Amino acid sequence: KIVPGYHAELTSEGKLINDNTAALENYLNNLKAVAVQQALQAKMTQLVEDELNVRDSRDRRQGGVYNRKNRLSAFDAEHPEIKELIDSGINNPQALSYGKGHDFVSEWMKKNDVGRLRARTQIGSLLKQRNEMIKSIQEAQGWVEEADDALDILHKRQENLQKKGAEIVKSLPTPPTTDTEEPTPPTPPTTP
């Protein structure tokens, strides 16, 4: 589209230099506009690819949160008494030595027919497992938040690129309008 206009301007020898200069300027401006648009498109393509990669990563991370929560639910279903203990405010082995924790250990001893030390060790181990599951869920949720933040940044970069691209395209010189067409001869009348 760009080059044919250039060649068409070389038909009149009297206007050759002026038309040629205007055509070359127009051609170069069009080349620059095309190059700018291609560069903007390449950058936008890269940003969209990055967005897709982050979305995939976020989905995997969200799946990790889901799996961890399922494991915690299964643990709580298997050990409802530990969940009740934690819900009552006792979430570490040190709290098993007094008050509600001491009472819980006594009940555990009777129910499982074990001594106090063994009961405290078993309960402490279960508390530790559950606490580690909670930490694991929180960590995975943090990964999802990181992916969400990365998506926000990518969206802002895409918006900025669109704005800057529009500004750059607007700032490009517009091609001069010249009447370069040769006058067309009148059409001869047709005879019936």
Description:
Helix 2 packs across helix 3. The chain is rod-shaped. The chain contains 5 helices and no strands. The chain is mainly α and 192 residues long. 77% of the residues lie in helices and 0% in strands.
How can the largest sheet be summarized? none
Which residues sit in consecutive blocks of at least 5 with pLDDT less than 50? 6-10
Strand content: under 5%
Approximately how much helix is present in the residues? over 70%
Number of strands: 0
How would you describe the shape?
rod-shaped
State the separation between the terminal residues, measured CA to CA.
40 Å
Return the structural class.
mainly alpha
Give the SSE order as H and E letters.
Answer: HHHHH
Mean pLDDT: 84
The gyration radius over C-alpha positions equals: 38 Å
Helical stretch tally: 5
In short, what is this structure?
The chain has 192 residues and is mainly alpha-helical. The chain is 77% helix and 0% strand. It is built from 5 helices and no strands.
What keyword list fits this structure?
192 residues, mainly alpha, 5 helices, rod-shaped
Chain-wise SSE layout:
Blueprint: H1 2-8, H2 16-78, H3 80-87, H4 99-112, H5 116-171
